[in-house]
Amino acid sequence: MNNDHASLTRTVVTAFRMGAIAIATLALAACGSPHAAAAPAAANIATPAAAAMRTAPAPAAAAETPAPPAAAETPAPQEAASPIALPFSTDAARQTPSARFSPAMAYDAAREEVVLFGGATLGTNGLVYFSDTWVWRGSSWTQVRPAHSPSPRAWAQMADDPIRRDLVLFGGQSETIPRLTDTWLWNGSDWTQVTPVFTPQGTIEEGMTFFRRMGTVLLYSGDFAGPNHLYSWDGTNWTDLQVPNGPPPSAFQGGLAADPERQVVVLLASDVNQSQLQHWEFDGTSWTHRDVPTPPTRSLLQTATDLRTETIVMFGGIGFNDTWTWDQGAWTQQHPRHSPPQRSSTGPMPGMAYDVERGDVVVFGGIDNGNVALNDTWTWNGRDWRLQD
């Protein structure tokens, strides 16, 4: 990396950390860096409705009547071929969310499915935001069309609340608001906006998970300019836990996931003042920094709790497509035969969630090295990654 590009990267990362993701993405394109954001082809920025039109199966052609054979007996004429109802989705009929990055994804325990909401893609004149809802049931995506929805957004936080049988969605970034502060609940068929007495500060992609020890959803929030916060959602209201001696403001973004063996929440954070990723743990009362070897430093990393292997899985981040697991007090790099390609840039990242019913970590979308949004789905079974077709 030359000095000009390194300076550009620091400028863009700073802009991203202040919430100006759209500006950072377009700045890359304007400066012609190797990671410049090129406007994708129309197929990569199509709306869900257009995607549905593209996936509609072509009508079956009528079969031609064969010429009579030379034999004396003439067979009965063939009828036109009729469509056959298959017990599975064909490639032509399969539904898939349109190409996008930074959607909100979480497992819905009450309905035993992974839910995806929103995200964004690169359009001709900037970012295009989505407000559609999809569910993953292990082999295919299905679009749900609720009566109400949050506004189009990307980089929102979402987590399952199994006690109250809801998914909780908070914040994100929209076309006009860099840090949203609204709270929505998903009940499996519709979205409902709630109005808690207290609302956290706006946050983007900084970590959200359910913590069984407390019986609440936890939201980590930092803005790179002031104290970081840990918020708790009890089904009705948010509470700022105001836990002292926690991660410093420089620990801006990270993966937040519960350690199923030790009953603590692990924050693996990118800290601009440190040469390696920082490992923090919250036990319901206090933060503890653990000085353990961690994966190579990076931004936009993501983690998910794998209940089948009782590990925390980390995948990717800017410049990486590696897989690491946290187990028995150590981070260990995995070496699967297959792996999703790199899918994070300055701002854009894939969606990631653990599918409890099927025992897989699910990764969807992101952005490739050519800054083209993706719409592929990968699953991790504890040993290897598989591309779902």
Your description of this structure?
This protein is mainly β. It has one domain (3-53, 92-388): Neuraminidase. 8% of the residues lie in helices and 37% in strands. Strand 14 and strand 15 form a beta hairpin. Helix 1 (3-17) packs antiparallel against helix 2 (21-31). It starts with a helix and ends with a strand.
Features:
389 residues; 24 strands; 3 helices; mainly beta; disordered N terminus; Neuraminidase; single chain; four-stranded antiparallel β-sheet
User: Portion of residues in helices?
Assistant: under 10%
Instruction: Tell me the strand order in the biggest sheet.
Output: 1-2-3-4
Q: Any idea what the CATH superfamily is called? A: Kelch-type beta propeller
Look up the CATH topology: Neuraminidase
Main sheet characteristics? 4 strands, antiparallel
Number of H- or I-type helical stretches: 3
SSE order, as H and E? Answer: HHHEEEEEEEEEEEEEEEEEEEEEEEE
Write a concise synopsis of the structure shown:
This protein has 389 residues and is mainly β.
Explain the layout of strands and helices.
Layout: H1 3-17, H2 21-31, H3 48-54, E1 104-108, E2 113-123, E3 126-136, E4 141-144, E5 157-161, E6 166-170, E7 183-186, E8 191-194, E9 208-211, E10 216-221, E11 229-233, E12 238-240, E13 251-259, E14 264-271, E15 278-282, E16 287-290, E17 302-306, E18 311-317, E19 320-327, E20 330-334, E21 351-355, E22 360-367, E23 373-380, E24 385-388
